[in-house]
Amino acid sequence: MLHLTTQNFDICRMNHWQFSSDTPAKAGPEHPTLAVVMFYAVWCGKCAMMRPVIEDLEKKYQKKYFGSICFFEVETSESALLAAQYQTALLPAFLIFKDRELIATMQGMIPQKELDSRLQKLLTVQMRTQSTENL
């Protein structure tokens, strides 16, 4: 997971979730279909418990949907304005973006199967939409 802060969040979002414009192009989509941003706090036990779940899903999606979904993290104490902007009072909070637009929010402890299922549905819908647009 790449770490985002108030200073680089909007730049990354405006670059279609490419962390930097210097990043070499990879095989796969022009830019990620979905971006998952986990808001957490270092003192939050539930956040620490969810981290391995997100890391497992990140590995799974990198293999299955290379380049179509990317994962980021934002530490709320470090980026309090960003956390307030997205109303992440309950941690951990997972914000899902399609391109630059927020399309879903999930908060709190979420079982891995449920989180995986929700992401699969969102990704499938987005990929189906892209395929239709390319016709």
From TrEMBL:
InterPro entries on file: Thioredoxin-like_sf, Thioredoxin_domain
Domain Thioredoxin intervals: 1-124
GO MF annotation list: protein-disulfide reductase activity
Highest taxon of the lineage: Bacteria
Signal peptide: none
Gene3D superfamilies listed in its UniProt record: Glutaredoxin
Keywords: Redox-active center
One of the record's GO cellular component terms: cytoplasm
Family: Belongs to the thioredoxin family.
Protein name: Thioredoxin family protein
Species the sequence originates in: Dorea longicatena
Gene name of the encoded protein: trxA_1
